[in-house]
Amino acid sequence: MKIAVYCASSTAVSPSALKIGFSLGEEIAKAGHQLVWGGGAISVMGEVAKGVRSQGGYTIGVIPEKLTNIEFIDSDAHEMHVVEDMRARKGLIEKLSDGFIALPGGLGTLEELFEIWVGRYLGFHGKPISVLDPDGTYDSLRSALADLTEKNLLKPGQHELVKWCTSPLDSINHLESEQRA
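Request: output the structure for the sequence above.
Response:
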């Protein structure tokens, strides 16, 4: 399975965020899966890829030309696709991937998570989605989503399309079980 990981590229993230990224990468490779990610070598993005490669796993990066110097393109990637812009990046990541895991991150991560979530709800893809949040970073987001559900702004069945997990193995197991279903 090719697993896309959406995550932070900020160099200001906590050491625990870097650690969970590396651990997720390790577990992806140990489970025999490949990583598809944003192609950056810094922050959590870089740690996920390093974690995969530390266990002999395969990495496939997708990065817009404009970001190759900002996110510092990962020259150790097994494959690197340099695309025109963010829309092309997201489209190719979706096309290449069999499932998606979002780690805590900023606006870019949230935008990627919500776009892939909406795509699944609307039937543009049937690929599984997990949010890996071991430290409760997204607790306030989950509360906001619950509030939107109570106010009938999230439609029935939308919330259930994403599995919220606290460990890398739980996220990977969810993707594997959903893919088999």
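The mean pLDDT is 95.
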